[in-house]
Design goal:
single chain, 247 residues, alpha+beta, six-stranded antiparallel β-sheet, five-stranded antiparallel β-sheet, 17 strands, rod-shaped
Amino acid sequence: MNAILLFSLAGFVISVVCGDDGSCLTKACNNKMTAPLLDNQNAPLVAMIDLSKADAHVKEYVNTALETKMANLVKTKLEDVFKSLKIEKDVKLYVDEVRQNVTLNITDDIKRIIEEVHERKQMKPAFFATLKTTQNLGRNDVLKFPNVVTNIGNGYDVNTGIFNSPQTGVYEFSANVITNGDMWLVIDLMKNGHIIARAHCAKTHGVAGTLQVILELQKGDTIYLQHPRDSGSIFGGDYSMFTGHML
């Protein structure tokens, strides 16, 4: 035997259905939820609560309470996880490490900039050397000018006659040679073993041959004068000279 009882509780319309299987015996079951009840006779009772009649404020209160509870629960659990993993300490160590690396990088950059500025403020490389005595030459001999007047940056090697660029930049080089005796004279200006320019003197004593070039050099590039012929002779007396300087 089934029975349906209707009553009101706190704004909810509740129908109590007496039945053996506890199923909804009414046709209007939307917006309802069931709750099992027991009576003194242990008969199965089912309470049907009609939520459509619930006050909107009650729903809002329930939702807010659930959200607050869940937020507090999540926050508490995250704090427990952070503490157990010592994340706070690890984060601090990471920040300190990053700060130290940044400081080191900045320091290195500052040192590099200071060195570059200091290098630029140094006197630009320049040399000037002359030949006081006659110099006889064979094939591919490098001309040497022993009388070094100027050698800023020590780029010119008096022993080899070769200029080694101390700094990267744009340079100007010039040479003046005077023939000694009645022989043809050819002089090549060489950069790292390659001919850049040539000077020629006629087969007459005391004839001058000159050259002048502007070159972009890298640090360590070599510049020198070379004699390509089998024989030749250059007059000294400071008439023959070799110069170079950074612009």
